[in-house]
Amino acid sequence: MEITIGSNNPTKIAAVQAIFPNASVINRNVPSNVSEQPFSDEETRQGAINRAIACIRENPNSIGIGLEGGIMYIREQLYLCNWGALVDQEENVYTASGARILLPSGFQSQLTEGIELGDVMDEYTQKKEVRNNEGAIGIFTNDLVNRKEMFVHVVKLLRGQWEFYNKN
Ligand SMILES: O=P(O)(O)OP(=O)(O)OP(=O)(O)OC[C@H]1O[C@@H](n2cnc3c(O)ncnc32)[C@H](O)[C@@H]1O
Ligand SMILES: [Mg+2]
What we know:
Elements: E1 2-5, H1 10-19, E2 24-27, H2 41-58, E3 63-74, E4 77-87, E5 93-97, E6 101-102, H3 108-113, H4 117-125, H5 135-140, H6 147-167
Parallel strand pairs: 1-2, 1-3
Antiparallel strand pairs: 3-4, 4-5, 4-6
Helix pairs in contact: 1-6
The chain binds inosine 5'-triphosphate and magnesium ion (MG).
């Protein structure tokens, strides 16, 4: 079985490899066709679906997976949110959301100005490429849940649904 993951981000690739250990996993930096920084649950979910569909268009013999991070307001509070989508050979689309955690209120002005969370995180932590490592989720959970682990859970939700609906 071949799986195409629509990203070059190592946390996303590693999460797919962990949950599909017997598959050959390839990565393609496909467009999400949403903002670089999705700003709602809906836009983040759509980005994941668009990536998964783009993956099977590029590689029609594979299953496509899209994983997308975003931010969203709940009332006046800004949360990190995450979504995943799996598209199979019959073009059935399975979706699942991942963890949400509150971001510091001090992030709101930069993020509403259009600065990406990845860049805000690097400045905040004085580290490089937090997005490719522990992620915002790792930083703000004191490394109890890192970005790969968070996406592992999302990919499990995708694989499980895909298996369930294919045996029934
Ligand atoms: O190469 P891709 O797959 O696009 O990976 P990415 O790190 O850019 O991740 P997303 O596009 O899914 O996320 C959209 C934006 O939100 C940022 N982001 C989302 N979750 C994050 C996290 O846990 N830590 C740091 N930045 C995050 C990310 O860096 C982008 O600026
Ligand atoms: Mg991105």
